[in-house]
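Exercise 3.2. Students should predict the tertiary structure of the chain below and write it as structure tokens, then compare their answer with the key that follows.

Predict this chain's 3D structure.
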Amino acid sequence: MPPPCLDVLLLDGQYRQALSCMRVYAQQGISVGAVACESEADLFTTARSRWCSMSALVPDFERDPSAYVDAVLDLVDRTGAAMVLPAHDGSIEVLRRRRADFTDCALPLASDAALDIALSKERTLALAAELGIAVPDSVLVTDPAEVPAAVRQTGLPAVLKPQAPWVVDESGRGSRLGCDLVTSADEASRRLEQMLEVGAPSALLQPWLPGRREAVSLFRAHGRIWARFAQVSHREHPILGGATVLCESVPLPADITESSEHLVEAMELDGCSMVEFRRDDAGRPVLMEVNARMGSSVALPVRAGVNFPVLLHDWASDRELRPVGGYRVGERLRWLVGDMWYLNTAFARHPWPDVPTPTRAVTTLLSDLVVRRSRLDRSSVTDPWPVLSELQQAVRLHALPKVRRALIK
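Answer key:
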């Protein structure tokens, strides 16, 4: 049977934002297919959606970027997809290297010049500093031997950040790198050595900031910003900074909104972006990073009234764009599997800042359920299989092995 004709081909189908986009597009009569890498087959929950017209597995872009792009182009050719939408820094990086090959479909990404800045933490922070935006005190480290001196400048705990979220080693294999909280110079040296081994040229060591985590999402095209949305992150996975587990829509804070717009305009960063801040002890917002894509919690702005997936599709399709004037404040979105990881970290009793005691973690979750209810991300009465599949995989891949190990002991 020939593959169906598609309007949109969603990549990185294991991520929450892919499922959110699929539901938005399908409910507008847009036919959608989803793709995931072969190593992510067990987590490919978007393929279980009733709205998924086609699903496919392709080679991993980490192991063979060329084969990955060739497979995506083949799917575009066979399905006639008019737009290809990636959701991961790694897929964005490998696709933009062959942007010229996507002649028969839209690839709604910012320019290479803008992505070069957004995907480099060092260049992003340097530009922000030029604009007068507060940035963390950062020490560049290129060798583990430099770490003790850097730690004396930043203090402990500190955060070790790769300069770019996606790196490629000499063999052509790619790796996605995250940030690490370190509580000793030895720990920082070991983690830096691991980053260098997979191709990172250097990293930044920054002081740990304890304050509130806030973000502004923007949509920019044709030289102007069409939509703005602000959210606060109450919980994340990993707890020390990662994917949002519980977030809430808030009024646009004047300080971080102005800074976000200035930064995105200076980059000329078209499309969707999320500018993340963390406040210090004095309540001053400090820039953390800029993501040149939709965040994992994009279902929150969609629910609140800012439909970033539609704006992106309209831009890619050369349709008329209309500015979004406002949104509902106080909407909350919760990722159930992320809360399971939150509890797991709490019960592991890691001696890190922001990690609650087990009692406090359980009390917080119960309070959220009773006092202030939140919409569950991925869940839908009319489309239940993705969230059920995710829960099943979380139990099978993580919970059951731990139970077996406990019984053996």
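Discussion points: The mean pLDDT is 92. The chain is about 35% helix and 25% strand.
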